[in-house]
Amino acid sequence: MKQCKLCGTPLGKDPTVEELEKHWKKHHNWHWESNKEKTPEEALLKKRNQDVLE
């Protein structure tokens, strides 16, 4: 299960770019406005190697 790194909202197992972008703009518009150069994945999801428990 992927979670939004900004608010912790569950985003599903494999959220689409469209689903991520919709969440980003709806719930974090202030962040979207200042980070438009990022992809929704970069902005909302933790890096893959951080998701793995050591």
List the helices and strands and how they pair.
Elements (H helix, E strand, L loop, with lengths): L1 E2 L6 E3 L4 H11 L1 H6 L5 H5 L3 H4 L3
Antiparallel strand pairs: 1-2
Architecture overview:
With 54 residues, the chain is mainly α. 48% of the residues lie in helices and 9% in strands. It has helices at residues 17-27, 29-34, 40-44, 48-51, and strands at 2-3, 10-12. Strands 1-2 form a two-stranded antiparallel sheet. Strand 1 and strand 2 (10-12) form a beta hairpin. The radius of gyration is 11 Å and the shape is globular. Mean pLDDT is 89; it is low at 50-54.
Low-confidence stretches: 50-54
**Helix-strand category:** mainly alpha
What's the N-to-C terminus distance?
Answer: 18 Å
Strand line-up of the largest beta sheet: 1-2
The number of helical runs is: 4
Radius of gyration: 11 Å
Globally, the shape reads globular
What is the beta-strand fraction?
5-15%
- The tally of strands reads 2
